[in-house]
Design a protein that fits this description.
The relative contact order is 0.14. Helices cover about 40% and strands about 15% of the residues. It is of the alpha+beta class. It has one domain: 2-Layer Sandwich (Double Stranded RNA Binding Domain), CATH 3.30.160. It is built from 4 helices and 5 strands.
Length: about 140
């Protein structure tokens, strides 16, 4: 059982974990041992509240398929148990990140004083550049 919050938890039957062979270097160990974990989680057929499901399905994430299945491949560690824990933690983080409401942006204007400072600075810079010119001989 994976606990998401104090009120929400996912049962073991909702998360499908499969051991697969890891990619990359590792010599004979990579060829013999299935230490990587392939996690599949069907969002639509889960016991998550409807709000969580909607937010997860709206995500623009490469780990979410068109069918609403989250696929996570964990192969960071050499140990299968550590990869299993890593995959479960990444699923938990993904679910929690999906339900965070983004802060509403309020349009603001620069203050009159900041605009005045900006224009004064431009004027001063222009005067400095004017001093670098060759003098005009009459």
């Amino acid at each position: 059982m994976l606990s998401i919050t104090s009120h929400i938890a996912l049962a073991d039957w909702e998360i499908q974990l499969t051991a697969i062979r890891a990619q990359g270097p590792g010599g004979q160990n990579v060829n013999k041992v299935s230490s990587a974990i392939h996690l599949r989680f069907d969002v639509q057929n889960s016991t998550l509240p409807p709000f969580y499901k909607q937010r997860l399905l709206k995500l623009n994430d490469h780990r979410l398929t068109k069918d609403g299945v989250i696929i996570i491949k964990a192969q960071q560690f050499r140990n299968q148990e550590q990869n299993k824990e890593d995959a479960l933690q990444r699923l938990k983080q993904m679910i929690l990140a999906a339900v965070v409401q983004p802060k509403q942006r309020r349009a603001t204007k620069p203050s009159r004083n900041s605009q005045k400072k900006r224009m004064d600075k431009k004027t001063q810079h222009g005067k400095t550049k004017a001093l670098r010119r060759k003098p005009i001989n009459d």
